[in-house]
Amino acid sequence: MARPSYARAMARGRVASVAVLVLPVLACSAAPAEAPLAVAPSAAPSVAKEPLLRGPTVPWAVVFERECRASNTAPIVSPGQTVVGFCEGVFSFEEGRWLGSQPVGAEAYFAERAVISASSAGLGVEVDPLLGDGSIERRTLTSGWGRQVAVSPDRTRGVALLEEPSGDARLVSFRLPGLEAGDTAPFTGPVDHVRVGFLANGAAFVFGSGLCVQEPVACPDGDGSLDCVNTNCDARSVRTLASGKLVDAAPALQGALDVLVSRDGARALVQWEDGRRALVEMPGGAIVAELPKEADEDTAPMFGIADDGSRIAFIDDGKLVVAEIAGRDLVVLHRRPLEYAEALTFSPDAKTLFVKADIGMIALREGATPYVAQTPSYQPVPPPGFERTFGQQTPIAVARNHPKWEEINEILPLGMIARYRGGEDAEYLVNVIALDPRELGPADLDPAKWVNVAIARDGDEEEPAENVTSWRTAEGRSAEYSWLFRESCNPTDLYVRVSEKGGVLYRVEIEAPRGTSPATVAPLMQRFFDGPLGAPPAKRSLTTARRSKVRC
Q: In terms of CB atoms within 10 Å, which of 110, 177, 431, 449 comes out highest?
């Protein structure tokens, strides 16, 4: 079930309370191209090959950023570069317009509107048509929990690591789109921290630890009895699927901390336990170019590689580096501050990079005009007893480093600029979020259709919105709707206002206890909705009645 908003997730108790530092990756100014990054010559011989051509270096710029509202799915791009999937949503490739939903665990597109997912519901692998595409039939490979899924370069085959309820795992190949099963082999290592894919010769592979053996040992704080176990696994390696067995395929990379193989299977980014990093030829492991050594050897690798291995992205000393390969040189195309990323995904043409960071997805594009966001201006007059607990007025897509972020102690959604709390027991919460207006559709979209897009972006089919109304003014479109949550152990009434004003899309949420009367909510809407954003043209008619039952 998709999470419609930060407040809604809090109402359902599904957002972790952890501190987060918003990263300065979001600055819109374009960084200049740099000179080749100096790298030490490798002791390993390179494979003889034609030199890569150095193209013209042009600036890269942030073109949009989008919030992750549910799941934890990394960005994936369609073959024709028309859409990008991220978390629970599908967005237009060019400007990040929200188009619809995608399944949780989506791993790759094998057609322009067809996605393959690793199922968390025991269905193994799922094939789903997206955005109403009727050319693909929904199918499932009903066996086990999907841990990793990859699609071949020609998008006619797939490979998945599946885990059975017993804990046993296996690597499975299959045909697309029908999911006809092919070769399979048992996988005896841990199912976490693995990668699957295809090598250039067409062989399906898995990178991970091999056979694991458990040995009983005395517990550290126990009485000496053999009540605990140590699990010892073979070193990580790349193994290919062949006639029901997994066969070592890249001996030179055995023991590497991580291996990220390009889609065409010809190159890989590798990090070793001692922090060394390099781009190598597959499967032999000959070094093409070395990356700066990772200072913190315990840091999880943060890599991205183009489909053909011609460009790479990585984190170096608090910076995101985008580089292309010219001979044995890394020619830096772009660099910007970034301490952490969960995923770095290139588009098929390698000219757009999608970065999954703490607060969502940032789209960086070569040669693009930076999107110039407007500075929000939201100035309500709160009712007596309401306290502003968080507030900041900064442009969208610019770093929002609140001076007291340590005290906030929770995940802040993308664009959060203010929060107010009030009531006798602080039972009312108001969140103010400033977003990119392009996300919900073109300026000429009728308000009645526009509000449906806003609701669909927020909600899900199991919780219909209430009190829906929309209108247009000289400044743009506005809409209001309510989510009255009853099927929850913490039922809540959430009143939402979305308004376009001054080039900013404002989303204001008033969270109230379940069943709060319209007479109590109306003055809050006047203060937090109407005062800063303008009153609706017609008198509000609110209801808090719902037929659904409370279920815990």
A: 431
What one-character-per-residue DSSP string does 4-63 give? --HHHHHHHT-S--------GGG--SPBPP-PEEP-PPPSSPPPP-PPPPP-----EEEE
Token output for 131: 């955005």
79-85 LR contacts (CB < 8 Å, sep 24+): 79/109, 79/111, 79/112, 79/155, 79/348, 80/112, 81/347, 81/348, 81/349, 81/352, 82/112, 83/109, 83/112, 83/113, 83/130, 83/131, 84/347, 84/354, 84/361, 84/363, 85/109, 85/115, 85/130
Q: Which residues contact 321 (CB under 8 A, 6 or more apart)?
A: 37, 313, 314, 315, 330, 332, 334, 335
Other CB atoms closer than 10 Å to residue 320's CB: what's the count? 28
Distance CA 332, CA 233 (A): 38
Note the pLDDT of residue 406.
Answer: 46
CB atoms closer than 10 angstroms to residue 134: 7
Q: What is the mean pLDDT of residues 148-162?
A: 95
Spatial CA neighbour of 82 closest among 347, 308, 445: 347
The answer to whether 277 and 42 have CB atoms below 8 angstroms apart is: no
| pLDDT band of 125, cuts 50, 70, 90 | very high
Reported pTM: 0.83
Q: Amino acid letter at 168?
A: D
What SS3 state is found at 81? coil
- Phi, psi dihedral angles at 408 (to 5 degrees): -70, -45
